[in-house]
Specification:
There is one protein chain. The chain is mainly alpha-helical and 147 residues long. It has a domain at 28-81 and 89-136. The chain has helices at 2-46, 54-72, 78-87, 95-104, 110-130. The chain is elongated.
Length: 147
């Protein structure tokens, strides 16, 4: 009987560790997505090469497209779904996790997010015209011209 309790407790602890890991990944995705919205125009104005790196900009555009697509389909972010399933919300959350949840998860209807994310996606798409990106290769790795 003791092993069964330990096994359940171990599974619950493991699930919470995975849920907190997904929350951290979610936070990093949010920072990348939102950060790009401001860093791209700012970097263009200040002449930063970083904002013209093609693979980084394509990744940002792709992430924003996936986010908008999920909202338009009426679905929550897959990271949100996974975290909720793993956490189970049976136990009270640690303070920092509760604070991050309230910062990340707004209790608004899905149509609000669909409109917000779609508008944001078109803004990022517009940034590709306003701040065009360079080649997929870094300048340092380009082959030298033949002489």
């Amino acid at each position: 009987m003791g092993n069964v309790r330990l096994s359940r407790a171990h599974r619950a602890a493991t699930s919470m560790i995975f849920a907190e890991s997904i929350l951290l990944i979610h936070l990093l995705v949010i920072m990348f997505s939102v950060g790009g919205l401001f860093m791209i125009p700012l970097g263009a104005r200040l002449g930063w090469h970083l904002v013209r790196i093609a693979w980084l900009r394509i990744l940002h555009l792709t992430v924003m497209g996936v986010i908008a697509g999920q909202a338009l389909m009426g679905r929550a972010c897959i990271l949100t779904i996974w975290q909720a399933q793993l956490a189970g919300h049976r136990n009270p959350q640690p303070l920092i996790m509760h604070w991050l949840d309230s910062l990340i998860y707004w209790h608004l209807p899905i149509w609000f997010f669909a409109g917000l994310y779609t508008t944001t996606f078109f803004y990022v798409l517009g940034l590709t015209v306003w701040v065009p990106f360079g080649s997929l290769m870094n300048r340092r790795t380009r082959p030298l011209p033949k002489q």
